[in-house]
Amino acid sequence: MAHIVVVEDEHQLAHLIAQTLRDDGHQTEVIRDGHVALDRLTGPGRISPDLIILDLGLPSVDGLTVCRQIRRERIVPIVMLTAKSTELDKVLGLELGADDYLTKPVSLRELQARVSAILRRVEMMRVESRTEEDSTKPIAYHDLSVDPMGREVVVEGREVNLTAKEFDLLYLLASHPGRVFSRTYLLDRLWGDSYSGFERTVDTHIQRLRRKLGGSGSVADHIVTLWGVGYKYDRTSSAPSSAPSSAPSSAPSSAPSSAPSSAPSSAPSSAPSSAPSSASDGAAAAT
Ligand code: CA
Questions:
Q1: How many domains does the chain have?
Q2: 169 vs 226, which has greater pLDDT?
């Protein structure tokens, strides 16, 4: 059961959505005005729903503004409702960080499916963060050691200077060898409040991290790209990590991760070098 806020000014639609979600066992709250939504969802005394369904066209403050404002303050899944495809372009173009969207007329069955998919993903991330509390354990592999207390990285006997974010990225990946981390997860986890919605940020940091670790043919090859999914640290990997052919074979083997839900849908489009990957993830999710 989740607490879901529905921000929608059309009475009948708001009622239908809320009823459908309640039938699925969720607790719902309907807000019919943008200004009220901001009051309830941001600032002091705000409520903390598990998910927000947000209409783009709202009285007093539009949905884009509401979305941006919420994003500035917190990470909570947001599903945007849009009336026409031109609005959809706007949502994607601005990369607001909406987690998903539905176009009107809203299919209630689709809504149910999207909502439960997102809630599953969130729950998975919660479980992960509970099991990852211990961030002080040093890593000592034969070719890489990472000391989180002194924030020191040694590669084959050579000390490597990393920025804070590069260090966090390496430590998170290397302390969970074999586990796939999606870009979205890495962004949320490591960038948090300053979350920009640009998954390319992760790609850029990975590139720099690999370079600092010694580039191709070095420890850097352990950081493996799973196209359209994310990254993992593979202790056994010796092939150049940028080879696209490694993706299909390594994807199924890496079972316990945050990635599976987004993996199949976004696979073909979001190689690091391609267009904004968050937009393509969104597009894929809409199919
Ligand atoms: Ca509306």
A1: 2
A2: 169
